[in-house]
Amino acid sequence: MMMMTKQTPPLHAGNDPSPLQQKNYRTGLVYDERMTLHKCSFDLNHVEHPDRVSKMYDYLQEEGLVSRCVRIIAGPATEEVVLLVHSPEYIAQVQAWQKEAEVDPNQNPCKLEEGSPTYLSPHVYNCAMLAVGCAIKLVEAVLQGEVDNGLAIIRPPGHHAEMDEAVGFCFFNNTSIAARYAQTELNVKRILILDWDIHHGNGTQHAFYSDPSVLYLSLHRYDQGKYFPYMDESNFSAVGEGKGEGFNVNVAWNKFNPDLVLVSCGFDAAKKDPLGRCNVTPGCYAYMTHHLKSLAQGKLVLILEGGYNVQEMSECMAACSRVLLGDAPPTVASGIPTRISETSIANTIQAHRKYWKCLQDHRPSSLPDD
Ligand SMILES: [Zn+2]
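^ thats the input. predicted complex w/ zinc ion below
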């Protein structure tokens, strides 16, 4: 995640000549209270807590944003849909975990951990299926023109979930499934997934690593592999393989001309987040949302991933919602990137220079690491 310091006078994002901000948009909102049933029975303060979505929804309601959105009603996904990304054995495993958790919720289904463990509950399968169902229904509503764009307030999150493994509070990879669903059922060819969660979406990277039709861009903390999910392949050098070489970007840009943009919308890079410890403001998320609206004729869907400070993440989602609805983006301060940020970006540019013409004339302002 890029960190900005040395604040210079504010630059009004509204000066951007994009015609998009002049219009009111129909923004779909999907939320289902039943997703709050999955909770940790042995740690009531666990960071992946149902309040993350219920309080976010309440906040959007208080801010008058829910009534401005078009409510999308969804049910649980079918197994057939989840099979687009996950193996049948793994789906059966999550179903079995739900049953087993009625007797013993203290099993640990996940090998990789960061402080708080990934937990099971007697609702884990139902909630995970519902989260997928909400994501695909919203994407369908956008692609069928029922709404222009949308936001999915869902949990458990998805981007760490592998084809056959639960990782980092994630069971089914909501965003990856939504992308595959859009391609197989709704005739979409090219999809951009921008993942601005503080953590690298290892599951999403793996789902599309050799596929040039899905450009996966992740902005995340890496810390030389010492930050969750602790994988070397979260680094800039992971560029995709086979036909997908050059379509896995671990940091940023366009020229891909997608037909649909999905955001793996984690807010754990927001200030005061107990896991991310970065300082991204609601205005910054809104600003990124504003720029994404210029792609794919505005077909943009934000799908909630992480974020563990309930108040902060609610404000961030509210700021993004306003931009989706057509309000002008807020004023954001521009800054000078730190040396570390410049190096991270230069490394990514270097790794992708041979795949992207637009980068071939780019002169990095900092030398890449060895
Ligand atoms: Zn995260």
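The longest strand covers residues 4-11.
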